[in-house]
Design a protein that fits this description.
branched-chain amino acid biosynthesis; acyltransferase; elongated; Double Stranded RNA Binding Domain; TIM Barrel; 2-isopropylmalate synthase; about 20% strand; binds 3-methyl-2-oxobutanoic acid; LeuA_bact_synth; binds acetyl coenzyme *A; 2-isopropylmalate synthase activity
Length: about 500
């Protein structure tokens, strides 16, 4: 690849473009904690917010600028005096401040949003960059909706920005309309035609409306971009921005093709992604590249068999390189002999063919009612225990006590023993889980908890899925009911029962 240099700057905008999208609003303290995590991850620029949009955003940018070291801190402004002055004040104590000014350039935005002519847009850009340069040396200029802008005008606008002192030229595909070939070509064109192109950094800012944000960012790099704007977990306006973890790992895994490096400490990717999920309360989907629960998990027999022979058959990177402790061979409906035998061997059981066939058949039968077969399930089957053991819900009720909720539960076991307990919590789920923990005498920290509805009208049901990771093993449970609270209680008890069986099974020595 013919490129000016081989270091790609990672500009993280989780705290600005990410935070400005529905569902991702963060408190000041959360933003500051996340900015520290981004600096530790090794991003080059943290876009901390839009100071003139609210006092809360101003104060978060100001604290991040004062406290976070090791990355440039950027703040966003329209080509508007008040916005730029607010950025300058908020960034006063930053070690390496950047003011990022933007104005729309496409005909659609000029006519409908700004009601400005080409000349007026250029005048505003000159005003914005000039004012920003009075405060800081590092000024980024963005032509919003650049991808849908006439090329001659885009070059004219960027020429004006460079002449007035912009040091980074950002080319946003604001509405995620580009395709990789087009964006690669656009960057080549701009680098060839903007005056002073060699003295500035070209940057790509791709949105994911067509699911192409990462592919387009990679193509922009091939076209000469040396900064990419992205967010952890791909959060951002509408379908989001390019996902940092995907972009960085694509550049790392395919270094031979792209020939470029980033400064990211990739083993911190998973923790950073999880921190963001904890802060926003929004989990990534299981099959999300790099950081989803399935990213290094294999359930189907053919893949598991291949993995056991040589992990490169089904994995293109080491899980440890992005922060996972190891790959996982998850036993489920699609698993085969190789994986079941291997897991049993690891648990200390070498079965003959007939015994293995029996356990596999019984394990597959379990998957009619559960997604995965845990070590505890396997050990139970090996011990010949197929019974319906464990706690069941006899009754439950919740009382709203104003600030708190109180849950009453009654559990029964197959021998008819009953136990009643109650507990209070900040909300119904916290109260319910606390009461269940007291009644079953089991407590665990949830790794994930999701509830969604299935069906509509009279058939509508809630499905709850929980998982907890204990002693290196994942225990998961699922519950369905017309009532989502009851579905959650059933799922919680399934995890608790598995955990109890696993403790019991650790004492079972051999195939019964
Ligand atoms: C593609 C992006 O991600 S752009 C960044 C998006 N981020 C945000 O919007 C941050 C949060 N926004 C806010 O808090 C508010 O919108 C504010 C404080 C910025 C502005 O609020 P208001 O003054 O009430 O204006 P409002 O949001 O209704 O409209 C935006 C105004 O900015 C103008 N404008 C938009 N972009 C620019 C720009 N780059 N340069 C100059 N003016 C601009 C619009 O033409 C409109 O002007 P008008 O009020 O004269 O019609
Ligand atoms: C302000 C710019 C960089 C932006 O967020 C966009 O165009 O999507």
């Amino acid at each position: 690849m013919n490129s000016p240099n081989n270091r790609i700057r990672i500009f993280d905008t989780s705290l600005r473009d990410g935070e400005q999208s529905p569902g991702f609003t963060m408190s000041g303290a959360q933003k500051i904690a996340f900015a520290h995590a981004l600096a530790e991850l090794g991003v080059d620029v943290i876009e901390a917010g839009f100071p003139n949009s609210s006092p809360a955003d101003y104060s978060a940018v100001q604290t991040i600028a004062r406290d976070v070291r090791g990355a440039s801190i950027a703040a966003l402004a329209r080509c508007h005096e008040g916005d730029i002055e607010a950025c300058a004040r908020a960034l006063e104590r930053a070690e390496s401040p950047r003011i990022h000014v933007f104005i729309s350039s496409s005909p659609l935005h000029r006519q409908y949003k700004l009601n400005m002519s080409r000349e007026q847009v250029i005048e505003h850009a000159i005003m914005g960059v000039t004012l920003a340069r009075k405060h800081v040396d590092d000024v980024e200029f963005s032509a919003e909706d650049a991808f849908r802008t006439e090329r001659d005008f885009l070059v004219e606008l960027f020429n004006a920005a460079v002449a007035t002192g912009a040091t980074t030229l950002n080319v946003p595909d604001t509405v995620g309309y580009a395709t990789p070939d087009e964006i690669r070509e656009l960057f080549r064109y701009l680098r060839a035609n903007v005056q002073g192109a060699d003295g500035v950094v070209f940057s790509a800012h791709c949105h994911n409306d067509l699911g192409l944000a990462v592919a387009n960012s990679l193509a922009a790099i091939e076209g000469g971009a040396r900064q990419v704007e992205c967010t952890i977990n791909g959060i951002g306006e509408r379908a989001g921005n390019a996902a940092l973890e995907e972009l960085v790992m694509a550049l790392k895994v395919r270094q031979g093709w792209y020939g470029v490096d980033t400064g990211i400490t990739t083993p911190k990717l998973l923790d950073t992604s999880r921190l963001l999920s904890r802060i926003t309360g929004i989990q990534v989907q299981r099959n999300k590249a790099i950081v989803g629960l399935n990213a290094f998990a294999h359930e189907s027999g053919i893949h598991q068999h291949g993995m056991l022979k040589n992990r490169d058959t089904y994995e293109i990177m080491h899980p440890q390189d992005v922060g996972w402790p190891a790959s996982q061979l998850v036993l489920g409906r699609h698993s085969g002999r190789a994986a079941v035998a291997d897991r049993l061997r690891a648990l200390g059981h070498v079965l003959d063919d007939a015994q293995l066939d029996l356990v596999i058949a019984q394990a597959k039968a379990l998957t009619h009612t559960q997604h995965v077969v845990s070590d505890a399930d396997l050990l139970r089957l090996v011990a010949g225990d197929h019974g319906d053991t464990g706690w069941r819900i006899a009754s439950m009720s919740l009382i709203d006590e104003g600030q708190h909720t109180r849950a009453h539960v009654e559990l029964s076991d197959p021998d008819g023993h009953r136990v009643k307990q109650d507990a209070s919590g900040d909300g119904p789920i916290a109260a319910l889980f606390a009461a269940l923990a007291k009644a079953a005498g089991v407590d665990f920290e949830l790794e994930s908890y999701e509830v969604h509805s299935m069906g509509i009208g009279r058939d509508a049901r809630g499905e709850a899925n929980l998982s907890a990771r204990i002693g290196g093993e994942t225990f998961s449970g699922q519950g369905t009911s017309r009532d989502v609270l009851e579905a959650s209680a059933i799922a919680w008890l399934e995890v608790a029962n598995r955990l109890l069986r696993s403790y019991a099974m650790q004492r079972v020595p051999a195939f019964a």
